[in-house]
């Protein structure tokens, strides 16, 4: 019988005639050690895993395109950035987007309470641009030096390997009040989106735009889904998780397979490039949002995801994003998180994927008009030789011979404001850790407030009394009602905690002292006219029977 299927081989190209039996001396063994076919197969299997990401291990990637509008705020976008991908209306750029959870391992549940990663790679004609963000718009800490401690508090106990022990998580948070804004989001329903398609995305950190004249603006990025924002309660998520650990990956790939391509519009907020002393928060602080009533959202383009990976490991496990990956016309700000992140991503990828991770097709700057031409050579798993000059022997620069040359210099050499200061270790001055968490609570929908309170109480009940008291103290400083509701459920009043002094790690000024003097009776904050990033409606998709949130 003819069989036109391809013949199985090993990686040396040797045809495999028997894939069922090892080579042995006689049918009962012993096995021979020269059995190349078996050794190649089993030793490759032994190495099938690369280390999983130290954070954001569980994720799913999809591919598609970004289409530029050519304008920002009704003006040509060239006024503020010269980045080529944005310039012409209708210009399309290929993208990859990896969604993820943060704390769990590679096969962990996707219906877990956690921020979601939202990492976009743009394959532009000027090389790659990565925008590595999340679905909540802010972050827990504002200085990168705290990141390893923060993540350790979120990861399993190193002795017992118990997961998400509330006493660890809230121990860290109780001593890091800058986390309060993010806590009001993660512990509420937005901490469990119903799918990757029904959530917002944000760059979170502050970046810069640069125009052709070298003029700079501060910029924040927002991805707004065309689908409504939808979330689950804790009880809904338990139902989803009971049926399937990978609900979000399955949802994403099923939607793409049926041609229901998810879309997000990219919007930006812009600010002049200086420290804005008129604001009572710092524009470089990633625990803050920029109120949209003062800094409106300006649409710049539309992203569509239309392809799932052909192979999950090759295109999702090995994809590598980094905040340092920017193209001409885009730049860093001095945000202390951003600088730390920028070192960390490529560093971990050289370890996780290997020193030549940028030669893998999913990571290579495949759309770069000038190609990828470097003098970087060799190292583990070099897949090929990067683009070189006419004489491939010239792997150095400068040279009079036929090697690579430097690109043309930009018209201006220096850009941005002049910075001066002495070396120091100090937190930023305008920490203002309580205002936006309080405002965020007040502007939440009623079911979001109820869920937030129920989840805070449920977690804090598992914590030491000192941690409970400190958290209630923070919550009262943010908003009376929030402190009152959580405190009532724990049996802790404002009077019980009023004697507590600020924690050593926090910023403190007259505004905080005044709230502490009146703890529990400050009255609601004024949120009239305030528009924060979460102010798009949030629909509950109900899966659980118990419609009412747990009584607190
Ligand atoms: C100093 C603070 C931070 C550090 C040191 C840090 C470090 C890391 C590291 C080491 C990874 C693994 C990367 C890999 O293995 O490929 C990672 C992944 C990620 N981080 Fe961060 N991170 C920080 C803050 C943030 C913030 C503020 C956000 C959101 C705005 C964020 C979003 C992400 C995302 C989305 C991924 C997954 C990327 C992917 O899908 O491959 N990180 N981070």
UniProtKB/TrEMBL annotation:
E.C. no: 1.11.1.6
Top-level lineage group: Bacteria
One Pfam family linked to the record: Catalase-rel
Record field: catalytic activity: 2 H2O2 = O2 + 2 H2O
Keyword Metal-binding applies: yes
SUPFAM superfamilies: Heme-dependent catalase-like
Keyword Calcium annotated: no
Top-level EC class as recorded in UniProt: oxidoreductase
PROSITE patterns: CATALASE_1, CATALASE_2, CATALASE_3
Keywords on record: Heme, Hydrogen peroxide, Iron, Metal-binding, Oxidoreductase, Peroxidase
Cofactor: heme
Chain segments carrying region Disordered: 1-28
Residues of the Catalase core domain: 9-405
Family to which this protein belongs: Belongs to the catalase family.
Task performed by this protein: Decomposes hydrogen peroxide into water and oxygen; serves to protect cells from the toxic effects of hydrogen peroxide.
Name this protein carries in UniProt: Catalase
